[in-house]
Write a sequence for this structure.
């Protein structure tokens, strides 16, 4: 019941505070099962889409596990070494007839296994190969849930009224961990409370 109340509260706050509707979102209320990586907020058509840990250099997807999140769980991954400008978290959503999209998220790096410090957020539209930086989308992470927060970052107008999917990714921009040292393969990154809102 507590998890359901938090999820409803999270979605309602997005609508009230920003005057927008929830398009999609991930709060990771469960840590196992077929839907554990799928969006649990927003439009029904978007709740079948999962979050991914991807590597452009190898063209592969990495394994995602779960660990303690802000409330329940957080998507968690290792293997970020040598990943600058190549390794990232990614999501997608559909929202024809909607505009003024905003993206929020919370990230954390491991303490005993320090993860990536430097990130930026990018987008692309379905059918495009190139990713585009989102203005003011730089993120610095630490071993807490307060530092690496993305708060209602506006997506560019090019995303308005999308005919197909919009893709968003959080990509690391350096091979440095949160301690200012070289990022190693066991460095941990977590992401939680991802939310995309928009206006009809």
């Amino acid at each position: 019941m507590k998890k359901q109340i938090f999820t409803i509260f999270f979605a309602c706050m997005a609508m009230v505070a920003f005057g927008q509707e929830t398009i999609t979102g991930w709060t990771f209320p469960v840590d196992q099962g077929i839907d554990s990586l799928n969006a649990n907020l927003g439009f029904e058509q978007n709740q079948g889409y999962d979050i991914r840990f991807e590597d452009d250099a190898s063209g592969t997807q990495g394994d995602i596990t779960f660990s303690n999140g802000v409330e329940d769980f957080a998507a968690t991954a290792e293997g970020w070494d040598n990943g600058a400008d190549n390794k990232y978290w990614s999501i997608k959503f559909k929202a024809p007839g909607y505009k003024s999209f905003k993206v929020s998220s919370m990230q954390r790096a491991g303490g005993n296994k320090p993860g990536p410090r430097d990130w930026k957020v990018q987008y692309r539209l379905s059918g495009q190969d190139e990713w585009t930086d989102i203005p003011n989308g730089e993120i610095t992470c630490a071993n807490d849930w307060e530092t690496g927060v993305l708060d209602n970052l506006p997506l560019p107008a090019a995303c308005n009224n999308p005919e197909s999917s919009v893709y968003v990714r959080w990509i690391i921009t350096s091979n440095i961990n949160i301690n200012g040292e070289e990022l190693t393969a066991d460095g941990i990154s977590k992401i939680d409370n991802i939310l995309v809102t928009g206006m009809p």
